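<amino_acid_chain>
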Amino acid sequence: MILSWLKFLKKISLTVVMVLLFSGCTVNKTKLPPDLDSLKSSETGRLPEFDSKDGYPDFVALVQSYPQEKSYVFANDKMIFKETRKLKDTQIWNDAARFAEINPEILSAYFSPVMSKPITKENTPWTYYLVARLIADVASFGTRGLKNYYKRVRPYVYFNTETCSTKNDEEDHRQTYSYPSTHSTYGQALALVLSEIDPASQAGIIKKGADYGFFRVVCGFHWNSDVELGRIVASYVVARLHSNAEFSEALKYAKEEYRSLQK
């Protein structure tokens, strides 16, 4: 009688184990994000925005103009620019050049050292997806209209000096404007989103976002006030994205993949 009972318990235990294993695989298996290449526009090669233009405020009406020539803020901009020229060939100068390209691979490598797990296409596909997609909303609806409206001259053009980048890059940027910094807006937006995904690493992530913006001052492409406005615009863009269903779903899955990695 006892032997039969033990055999029954053994059979039940094996069944329970198999059910748990199977259900565990089901729970941990989440769908993958859309293929980034398939989302790119055939005309521009760019990824689409999460939201529409109508979803964002008129930033020209919302923010103040750039500091004028005789203002104390512009005097501070010029002082900071001149001081940062002393950083040429230092580590921060080299980092400003190294991470200047807005590319998901580069930004993932930049933020990964302070994350609890590195951002990769393979292990954190939804987080990588958000890194790749955020720039579209930041540039299209956050900074482009302001840049084209104010047409502020970049500091290296104003002072007729060099940057941390190449001559070709400098020539390309002479045709664009300075206020606000798209790079700093993007870096801050990423820092806000990544700190939600990996809250245990929030302090390091936020610092990396701030440093990323300051790189543009060090490099010579932006005034300090360009970077400061970029951080403000980033907060508006990220706040708006939280009411977008597509972004919210991607953020949910990104949080899940980081929680699963920490188990």
Summary: The chain has a mean pLDDT of 90. Residues 110 and 253 are 22 Å apart (CA to CA). DSSP finds 13 helices and no strands in the chain. Residues 2-28 form the longest helix (27 residues).
